[in-house]
Amino acid sequence: MPKPLTVAVVAAAALLTRRAMRRRIRASPLWPWPALEEPVSGRPRSRALRLTVTSRETLAEGVVQLRLEGHDLPRWEPGAHLDLVLPSGLVRQYSLCGDPEDRSSYTVATRLVADGRGGSREVHERIGEGMELEVRGPRNRFPLVEASSYVFVAGGIGITPVLPMLRALPDGVEWRLLYCGRDRASMPFLEEVGKLRGGDRVTVVEGRPDLDAVLADVPEGAAVYCCGPEGLMAAVEERFPRVHLERFAPRASGGGGAFEVELRRSGRTLTVAGDSTVLAAVRAELPNTAYSCEQGFCGTCQQRVLEGEVDHRDELLTDAERADSMLICVSRASRGDRLVLDM
User: Fold this and answer.
1) What is the Cα Rg of the chain in Å?
2) pLDDT digits (tens, 9 = 90+) for 225-244
3) What torsion do the CA atoms of 26, 28, 32, 33 make, to the nearest 10 degrees?
């Protein structure tokens, strides 16, 4: 029979070895391949909050507004948005449309997209008063810049980031708003828009607007903002190339030809087809790869790029972040180049 001291020494050595192995695996999940710098995949981009839904209101046909309450919430400025982590785990982005001075609540609104990918349907069908939701942000990629005058174009639910901007404009500044939608019944915040100071500067159009007529005399140097359906934003951008845009859907992520992606940590090389995405190719080999929005907004699929030039198509990363990382759900290799990822 082993002596008690021998048993104790062996047990202690086994415990220390087990702890060392755990630390080693945390440092490099694909050990025994060599550990590189710590990857950025799946990192929340800001501190998560747990907020309570205290109000759920129907604003227009297919549009609901949620009030999310907490305590001493982070400040935000017009144009900012939140990441909502839905009960299913999906992450979706919604523009803040309440009062930036209110530190006790955030207000968002969302339109039901019947043929979408399920996020808006989940909000409409599963989220009610009293529920607690995880929220990340606020973040702002659509800030209100200082200008001598402003022109705002909003299509449907695209009015949500524009409303706080209109409220925040300094007295005396020139501005105008074109607000269009399928019909008045589907357009949220119509009554509030009509009560804005200088409300005679608002043009409401049901159906497709005549942009050439409505925007014929935009002052030189005016800041032009647009949020709404992709067709509307493309038409405004064609007329005003320096327009500030807020997208609810990504630019096309496919196209541009096939290219190779090497996953350095796992020692695999993949081919990404011209009509596919890096994320799809990676998940075929590594099915546990973290992702959520698949639109280049949430940052869940962010990966470090070790080699290669990236065609960035996301709506999130800063210039500094794009120097060494990418969102693999939408971005691709430039000119069919080869990418090496820290995966």
Assistant:
1) 24
2) 999 998 999 999 999 999 99
3) 170
First-last CA distance in the chain: 48
pLDDT in tens, 181-221: 999 999 999 999 988 877 789 999 999 999 999 898 899 88
Q: Between β-strands 223-227 and 202-206, what pairing exists: parallel, antiparallel or unpaired?
A: unpaired
Q: Are 279 and 301 in contact (CB under 8 A)?
A: yes
Structure tokens at 27: 């440092």
Residues sharing a CB contact under 8 Å with residue 14, sequence separation 6 or more, in sequence order: none
Question: What is the pTM assigned to this prediction?
Answer: 0.73
Q: Which residues are CB-neighbours of 235 under 8 A, at least 6 positions away? A: 211
Q: What is the overall mean pLDDT for the chain?
A: 85
User: What is the Cα–Cα distance from 148 to 224, expressed in whole angstroms?
Assistant: 11
In which order are the strands placed within the sheet that holds 48-60?
Answer: 91-95, 81-85, 132-139, 48-60, 63-69, 105-111
Check if the beta carbon of residue 96 is closer than 8 Å to that of residue 81: yes
Q: In this structure, what DSSP letter does residue 96 have?
A: B
> Within a 13 Å sphere around the CA of 271, how many CA atoms are in the beta-carbon half?
4
Out of 45-59, 120-134, 224-238, least confident range: 45-59
Q: How far lies 199's CA from each of 171, 190, 215, in Å?
A: 13, 11, 17
Which residues fall within 8 angstroms of residue 236, CB to CB, at 6 or more apart?
153, 211, 215, 224, 226, 243, 245
| Nearest in space to 333 (alpha carbons), one of 306, 318, 312 | 312
Cα separation, 251 vs 313, in Å, equals 7
Tens-digit pLDDT profile for residues 254-272: 556 889 999 999 999 999 9
Give the confidence band of 319 by pLDDT, cuts at 50, 70, 90: confident
| Cα(332)–Cα(70) distance, integer angstroms | 39
- The letter for the amino acid at 112 is L
Given CA atoms 52, 54, 56, 59 in this order, what sign does their dihedral have? Answer: negative
